[in-house]
Design brief:
32% of the residues lie in helices and 14% in strands. It has helices at 6-10, 56-65, 99-103, 109-112, 132-147, 157-163, 176-180, 191-199, 210-213, 250-261, 287-304, 331-335, 352-372, and strands spanning 23-25, 31-33, 69-75, 81-87, 120-125, 167-171, 201-202, 224-226, 266-273, 278-279, 338-345. It is globular.
Length: 381
């Protein structure tokens, strides 16, 4: 049996425990169930800034307040709504066929449509509930589009002008269940605290771990002390709910359906990890979206060098032979578009402002790249 981590964490963490079912009330009166596991807290960490809005009720309130068109694309097992916000015209594609059929025909406009259109991009955050950085980024981006200023009160007219040249969909948090039991941030957390918050601990206190968590789908909740914010409240990791014949979560189904309905050209999937900011090599199973994702990958990582202390590795193999299958690999199957994962640091000495800038730098690089050359070129009218 592995040595327990409880002595390591006890002084810093309000340890999670299974608690009786209870309810959380949203200001409108809507009631959401509470997880069987108590939220993890790390009291010694610095308080979050006021503009770091990442709690489920804050996310719901911001989405309901937004002037943008909005849609609840799923409900989590605990009953939380998963909101999508729409900026731009964002028309549903008028198509005669799905992408699979159209891409095998002689007329891909059967999916893309016969008329020129703005490209559609999706920024999605919070597939893993413990990874709050992308959620904070999306909430500040929503504020920027709604008011002209982010939640810090800072304007960014060039970024707003860039997004006006697209149809933009934003999902601020997919895994609201995981977010509901996760700390507001992990800036300054130890490796053990970060791993516990992310993937949880077994009953003996040992870390489940990043790789270890992927050996279970769903995570056996009766065997864990704390599940981390990776899975939803039923133990499913939405990022790996990627078996087309057996999608298990309403969250993954809702995001995929959104991507197909609006013919999304490119998806930016915001995550966090313990290293310096980095866009991961694209894992695409079709040549064209892989090439588009590769272009964005290079542009994003060049932009992030302003915040990194070490250069990123430019040589990578994104071929199907090295494919690690996850949600991103389904994107080209449903819309023909590309997808890229951004990994923001959770600590590494970065300030909260720098953690937010990671996301704005990434968005800017992605949007500029899409104007240089469309994300989907094959069959585009």
């Amino acid at each position: 049996m592995k040595k327990s981590l409880l002595p390591v964490l006890a002084s810093a963490v309000l340890l999670s425990a299974i608690v009786p079912a209870a309810a959380a009330n949203e200001p409108s009166g809507e009631v959401y169930a509470r997880s069987r596991f108590a939220p993890m807290e790390i009291p010694r960490l610095a308080p979050r800034p006021a503009w770091w809005q990442v709690r489920p009720l804050e996310i719901i309130a911001a989405c309901r307040k937004a002037s943008a068109r909005k849609e609840i694309i799923a409900r989590t097992p605990l009953g939380y709504p998963v909101y999508a916000l729409f900026y731009g015209e964002c028309p549903e594609a008028e198509r005669r066929a799905n992408w699979s059929a159209a891409s095998a025909s002689d007329d891909i406009s059967a999916y893309l449509g016969a008329k020129p259109r703005k490209q559609t991009v999706l920024w999605v955050s919070g597939f893993h509930g413990a990874e709050a950085e992308g959620v904070a980024g999306s909430m500040n981006f929503i504020s920027l589009l709604e008011t002209g200023k982010d939640l810090r009160g800072k304007a960014d007219p060039p970024l707003v002008e860039l997004i006006r040249q697209y149809n933009c969909l934003i999902i601020p948090c997919v895994n609201m269940d995981g977010r509901s039991i996760s700390p507001d941030h992990l800036n300054g957390a130890t490796y053990e605290e970060f791993r516990k918050a992310s993937q949880g601990t077994w009953r003996d206190g040992s870390l489940i771990g990043w790789r270890g968590s992927k050996a279970h789908f769903p995570l056996p909740l009766d065997r864990v002390e704390y599940p981390g914010g990776y899975p939803n409240s039923e133990g499913f990791n939405p990022m790996h709910d990627a078996s087309p014949g057996n999608l298990c979560t309403a969250e993954a189904r809702g995001v995929l359906r959104l991507i197909e309905r609006y013919g999304v050209d490119f998806v930016l999937n915001a995550h966090s990890f313990e290293l310096e900011p980095l866009a991961l090599p694209p894992a695409m199973i079709a040549d064209e979206p892989r090439d588009a994702a590769r272009r964005v990958y290079l542009a994003v990582n060049e932009g992030l060098m302003a915040l990194r202390t070490k250069p990123f590795k430019r040589n990578f193999d994104a071929s199907p032979a090295n494919l690690r299958h996850n949600f991103n690999t389904l994107v080209p199957l449903v819309s023909g578009g590309g997808a890229l994962t951004l990994e923001s640091p959770v600590s590494q000495g970065y300030t909260f402002d720098q953690l937010l800038e990671v996301h704005f730098i990434t968005l800017r690089a992605m949007l500029v790249e899409g104007l240089k050359k469309p994300f989907i070129t094959e069959g585009r009218p």
